[in-house]
Write a structure and sequence with these properties.
The chain is an alpha+beta fold. It contains three helices and four strands; from the N terminus they run E-H-E-H-E-H-E. It has a four-stranded antiparallel sheet. The radius of gyration is 14 Å and the shape is globular. About 15% of the residues are buried.
Length: about 90
């Protein structure tokens, strides 16, 4: 069984592009850690002809922690630091 962590960046008032950009920045920082992977979680099937993108889906990350004993604390430290640097621009983090 893999140890995984789900991270969700949301903001009711944010544009999808802004959430996607911020999520990408956080993903890049997390990939520098001793984690196995950082990806978008698998999404449900999109209905044919659908155009809308769910902002919550855009702001979701799935972190595969791997076997490192320090991976979770490293991830939390990066999130805290990232939130401090992007305070004015970040959506809610869950």
């Amino acid at each position: 069984m893999e140890n995984t962590l789900h991270i969700l960046l949301t903001d009711r008032d944010a544009e999808t592009e802004d959430v996607a950009e911020l999520t990408g920045y956080l993903r890049q920082e997390l990939l520098d850690l001793d984690v196995d992977d950082v990806t978008a979680p698998p999404g449900g099937e999109v209905p044919p002809g659908a155009r809308a993108v769910d902002v919550a889906q855009v702001g979701a990350l799935l972190v595969t922690l791997g076997s490192s004993a320090n991976a979770l604390s490293q991830v939390m430290a990066v999130i805290r630091s990232w939130m401090g640097r992007h305070h004015a621009r970040i959506p809610d983090t869950h």
